[in-house]
From TrEMBL, chain A:
InterPro entries: Ald_Oxase/Xan_DH_a/b (IPR000674), Ald_Oxase/Xan_DH_a/b_sf (IPR036856), Ald_Oxase/xanthine_DH-like (IPR016208), AldOxase/xan_DH_MoCoBD1 (IPR008274), AldOxase/xan_DH_MoCoBD2 (IPR046867), AldOxase/xan_DH_Mopterin-bd_sf (IPR037165). The keyword Oxidoreductase applies. One of its GO terms (molecular function) is oxidoreductase activity. It holds the Pfam family MoCoBD_1. The keyword Cytoplasm does not apply. Residues 24-129 form the Aldehyde oxidase/xanthine dehydrogenase a/b hammerhead domain. Keywords: Molybdenum, Oxidoreductase. This is Xanthine dehydrogenase molybdenum binding subunit apoprotein. The lineage of its organism: Bacteria, Pseudomonadati, Bacteroidota, Sphingobacteriia, Sphingobacteriales. It comes from the Bacteria.
TrEMBL record, chain B:
The lineage of its organism: Bacteria, Pseudomonadati, Bacteroidota, Sphingobacteriia, Sphingobacteriales. Pfam families: CO_deh_flav_C (PF03450), FAD_binding_5 (PF00941). This is Xanthine dehydrogenase YagS FAD-binding subunit. It comes from Pedobacter duraquae. The keyword Flavoprotein applies. Residues 1-222 form the FAD-binding PCMH-type domain. InterPro entries: CO_DH_flav_C, CO_DH_flav_C_dom_sf, Diverse_Substr_Oxidored, FAD-bd_PCMH, FAD-bd_PCMH-like_sf, FAD-bd_PCMH_sub1, FAD-bd_PCMH_sub2, Mopterin_DH_FAD-bd.
């Protein structure tokens, strides 16, 4: 058994198989694809938030050196606006629904010529009288959202039961607009051949991008090929695709040449969705010894004026604690702002900030250790639907984390742990994210050369930079009995067997199960082909050699286990933060952070650790510095560059540690993989905010916690 | 970015002549700000005159103090042994600014000429009197958390972003400039950057056709007692909410001369003259430091989003002076 484990690749922290390609610049991202006779497109955007275009004067731009064409709503080809792209802005009419909406594009011989010409376009507008760009104002009259899952969830006596509680806590938490800002801005190369188009474009869901682009362009899916073997991050913004993808294809069609279209960093602020602003009210009722009787989580979020996306902030509150009476509600505030979208840990990262801050507040009120309060309210089954947990590791994460972090050094009394001018504080917060598998297919192709067996694995999976290629090669290595070095991964292409996406923490489970199933199937078929009986099941490699088969291939289609639905399947974590705050300047540093995660089988501890600490880093940004501000007079972002939108720098990030609970849970899927993409950010901001309270005695309920909020 | 002519100056007088002959030409040093401005369409010079070949890169002691070449890199300046030993305040301030990569490119002269980071200034769709005189100031009634609390006008509330210049102000440096006629003039640091007044489009008193050749810092007795405090939204690579350069020339327990300048609060490095005057001759104590800080900040006129800068300024001046005293 031990020997067998030793030979397994899954579970080993091997280096990324594409690491060298990436650090030497040889990995091909979207704009790296060369094409002869490439033209360059640059988008230009509206400078009002609501109204309509009354005229566009593009004459000077058209005469500008190198310009091939200018495309606006006046001459754009007819597109299907309901084709599945997010955020509209497809140049189909003069209406303006948000500031920075694409209103046209210039195509020129060079990027510089297109950019220069785009500044020569003159646009006049008729502004709408009531421009909905002031969240504070609009949030006074929120409306019921349309989404089925956003309707009021009431359990027991709902929020009213709080009146019967011995101790109550009611607090309001606010989170600002945040942006995904992957290192690789959204960019596309479009190349037509006849009525088929190939789109090189970073896509978290390869087949989703294909079907949406095809439908929008009024084509059949097979007429569109998406190529996206590498993605420079996405965080949800490359899950659904946006207008830029199809507008690049349109430009290429119009100029009859390959076209490259890349968004600038400034354009990223209002082109590809965002994390919306939320006001969350938490009401907790408990007994004096900390048993919850009521948990209410009421959220108000803005959304686009004509389309609804609301991140589910109440999701954690639905399942984290055992309260007989509960209310989860959402209200929506339609605004003239680009459509919000899935943003790492959608709803859970922001929702856990509210819930887990409130739990910390309640613990303080009860003079309880916040870990004890959580354990006291640990639910035996899913409180939202009564289903049994497939497994739940919250208590284990809390206990093992407390030990590893040195939680016992935390002072119960806030504001007393001082080193010189600095205040030191400890905080804890929990998180969770659903574990799911989605249908995916994979092909395995084996070949025998000079006594060695080589494999190519094909699947339209995507790699955000998190290590999909590597974990799938490891999965195939174990499934076929072939070393990782003899496996070629072929992913990120819609011409490959279709797969789920790298979204919602379903990537690893869906892709790895598909590859594993394909390996099982090819071994089965080789066995059948051999016509022999074996005492010990041979590997595909052994069969290729013993039967001297030159080449063999299969494709298999995997589906999620049907009985997974009878259980509540989730990843869980506990986050521990130590902060050091300069009491004179108010500046905060997260000196230590530990995330303990129970996420089932960890396929590669090295890439998994990177993914978790990556989530932690964004959580640090969310807690301390990231905030995008709309100037309500114009509807634009006053924070429109990295000089104003502060992602964490190296100096903001102290020592990060990730621990995984050794967990075997085969309910969500056969391989027991729960996924870690989202959970790494869930609970992080709350742990830091709780540490800030422990350090200073100041409870800051609106993120980010900047120095001015500490001082005032 | 608009097409532009690229020229290369081989010597100082050629650089000046090239500049004089084209009113919309700009000098290119490290380019760390100018190229951004051009990419954002805020600046559109028709000619860039590359001056990086000029011999203005030396840092050397002279009879009066030290001379910093205008084209010496920020990094080389901060790490120069004499700067580190005799002018540590300058070293600390430079290293508190930007990022290592930017400091490696940025020149000392260019640092003085960098423009405000007001986001409305950078967004060409917004009104901005600094970018487009007469168009209005979007920041005045807009998002002005980063903006001025001293010396602003009804035309402009922008702040000047440099850290290095705050230290140079406290060190009472001067800027040496080559003029069109070939002669040089010295501009006292306090007079180099100017308040916005009715002409926010002008950041400084340099005339078109003038070339900064060096920055002169007089000798001082502050080396053992100086500090730079910078409060910002993250621990690196962010502009100051408030910064303070402080140096104490002590005579026993008494303060012979206090040098205090602030960043992030005005359209220029803000000499804390009231605080300096208050401390002259007084005992170096926290109580006096705080009283001096309060005296300075009493005149602040914060905007709607930056009232916190007053308290932050008091704390930061006090803290910088305490750190300077400790040495």
């Amino acid at each position: 058994m031990e020997k067998e484990e030793k030979n397994k690749s899954i579970g080993k922290g091997i280096d990324r198989i594409d690491g060298i390609l990436k650090i030497t610049g040889k990995a091909t991202y979207a704009t790296d694809y060369p094409a002869k006779n490439m033209a360059f497109a640059v988008l230009f955007k509206s400078t009002i938030a609501a109204g309509r275009i009354t005229s566009i004067d593009a004459e000077a731009a058209k005469k500008s050196p190198g310009v091939l064409t200018v495309i606006t709503h006046e001459n754009a080809p007819k597109l299907n606006v309901k084709g599945g792209l997010r955020g509209g802005a497809l140049l189909q009419g003069p209406e303006i629904l948000f500031y920075g909406q694409h209103i046209g594009l210039v195509v020129a011989e060079t990027f510089e010529q297109a950019t220069a010409a785009s500044h020569l376009i003159k646009v006049t507008y008729q502004q709408e009288a009531h421009q909905k760009t002031d969240f504070e104002h609009e949030a006074k009259t929120p409306v019921m959202p349309k989404g089925k899952e956003l309707q009021d969830f009431v359990k027991g006596g709902g929020k009213a039961a709080v009146k019967t509680a011995e101790v109550t806590l009611e607090a309001q938490y606010e989170t600002p607009i945040e942006h995904h800002h992957p290192m690789e801005p959204h960019s596309t190369v479009a190349i037509w051949e006849g009525d088929h188009v190939t789109l090189y474009n970073g896509s978290q869901i390869i087949n989703g991008a294909q079907t949406a682009a095809a439908a929008t362009l009024n084509l059949k899916p097979e007429q569109v090929r998406i190529v996206s073997p590498y993605i420079g991050g996405g965080f949800g913004s490359k899950g659904g695709q946006w207008a830029n993808l199809v507008l690049c294809a349109v430009a290429a069609k119009v100029v009859k040449r390959p076209v490259k279209l890349a968004l600038s960093r400034q354009q990223m602020f209002n082109s590809v969705g965002l994390r919306q602003r939320n006001i969350q009210k938490i009401t907790l009722g408990a007994t004096k010894d900390g048993k919850l009787n009521t948990l209410a989580h009421e959220t108000i979020s803005h959304t686009a004026i004509n389309d609804e996306y609301i991140e589910p902030c109440g999701d954690c509150s639905k399942i984290m604690y055992d309260a007989p009476n509960a209310l989860i509600s959402y209200r929506s505030v339609p605004m003239h702002v680009i459509l919000p979208t899935y943003t790492r840990g959608p709803g859970k990262s922001t929702g856990s900030f509210a819930l887990e801050s409130a739990m910390d507040e309640l613990a303080h009120k009860l003079r309880m250790d916040p870990i004890d309060l959580r354990i006291k309210n640990e639910p035996k089954e899913d409180p939202s639907n009564g289903k049994p947990w497939s497994s739940r590791t919250t208590v284990q994460c809390l206990k093992e984390g407390a030990k590893a972090f040195g939680w016992e050094k935390r002072k119960m009394e806030p504001g007393v742990n001082k080193i010189g001018d600095d205040l030191v504080g400890y905080g804890v917060a929990c998180g969770t994210y659903p574990a799911r598998q989605r249908d995916s297919s994979a092909a395995v192709k084996l070949s025998l050369k000079n006594g060695q067996v080589f494999a190519t694995v094909e699947i339209a999976a995507s790699d955000l930079g998190t290590g999909t290629n590597t974990i799938l090669a490891q999965t195939a290595a174990d499934g076929l009995g072939i070393p990782v070095s003899q496996i070629t991964m072929n992913i990120g292409d819609s011409s490959l067997p279709p797969a789920a996406g790298s979204v919602g923490s379903v990537g690893a489970s869906s892709f790895a199960n598909a590859v594993n199933d394909a390996c099982t199937k090819i071994t089965d078929e080789l066995l059948a082909k051999s016509g022999k009986q074996f005492f010990v099941r041979p590997t595909a490699r052994e069969l290729m050699i013993s039967e001297n088969i030159a080449a063999f291939q299969i494709r298999s289609d995997s589906k999620a286990p049907v009985d997974a639905d009878q259980y509540s399947c989730h990843s869980f974590n506990a986050n521990f933060a130590e902060v050091r705050i300069n009491s004179v300047t108010g500046m905060i540093k997260v000196t230590r952070f530990l995330a303990v995660t129970g996420a089932g089988k960890i396929l590669n501890p090295k890439t998994a650790r990177s993914q978790i600490i990556g989530g932690n880093v964004w959580g640090i940004g969310m807690a301390l510095s990231e905030e995008s501000i709309i100037d309500p007079r114009y509807g634009n972002f006053a924070t429109r560059s990295f000089a104003d939108y502060h992602v964490p720098s190296n100096l903001d990030v102290g020592k990060l540690d990730a621990m995984f609970i050794n967990e075997i849970d085969l309910v969500p899927n056969k391989m027991g993989v729960k996924g870690i993409g989202e959970v790494g950010i869930v609970g992080v901001a709350a742990a830091i905010a709780n540490a800030v309270f422990n350090a200073t005695g100041k409870r800051i309920r609106n993120l980010p916690i900047t120095p001015d909020k500490i001082l005032v | 970015m608009n097409p532009f002519k690229f020229s290369m100056a081989q010597n100082q007088s050629q650089a000046v002549n090239m500049l004089v002959s084209n009113n919309s030409a700009a000098l290119l040093g490290g380019g760390t700000n100018l190229l951004d401005l051009m990419k954002e369409h805020v600046a559109a010079p028709t000619e860039l005159i590359d001056i990086t070949r000029l011999e203005l890169k030396t840092i050397e002691k002279n009879a009066l103090g030290i001379s910093l070449g205008a084209l010496a890199k920020n990094t080389d300046t901060a790490n120069h042994p004499i700067i580190r030993s005799d002018y540590p305040l300058l070293s600390k301030a430079i290293l508190a600014g930007a990022s290592a990569q930017i400091r490696n490119m940025a020149t000392n002269g260019g640092n003085l000429l960098q423009r405000t980071r007001c986001s409305y200034f950078y967004d060409i769709a917004m009104p901005c009197n600094k970018r487009e005189p007469g168009s209005g100031c979007a920041a005045m009634e807009g998002f002005n958390r980063m903006h001025a609390i001293f010396g602003w006008s009804d035309q402009c509330v922008a702040v000047y972003p440099s850290d290095m210049a705050v230290a140079l102000s406290a060190l009472r440096a001067s800027v040496r400039v080559l003029q069109q006629d070939g002669s040089s003039r010295n501009i006292a640091f306090d007079d180099f950057h100017i308040l916005p007044g009715q002409h926010p489009e002008k950041d400084n008193s340099l005339k078109h056709g003038e070339l900064i050749t060096s920055i002169e810092i007089p000798e001082n007795k502050l080396a053992a007692h100086s500090a730079y405090v910078k409060v910002r939204d993250r621990n690196s690579y962010a502009f100051a909410l408030v910064s303070v350069a402080a140096g104490l020339a002590l005579e026993g327990a008494r303060i012979g001369d206090a040098h205090i300048s602030m960043g992030g609060v005005a359209h220029k490095p803000w000499r804390a003259l009231k605080a300096e005057a208050f401390l002259k001759g007084k005992t170096a104590s926290t109580a006096n430091f705080r009283a001096a800080a309060k005296a300075e900040m009493a005149a602040a006129k914060p905007l709607s989003h930056n009232k916190f800068k007053v308290e932050m300024g008091i704390n930061s001046i006090t803290n910088a002076l305490e750190m300077a005293l400790k040495g």
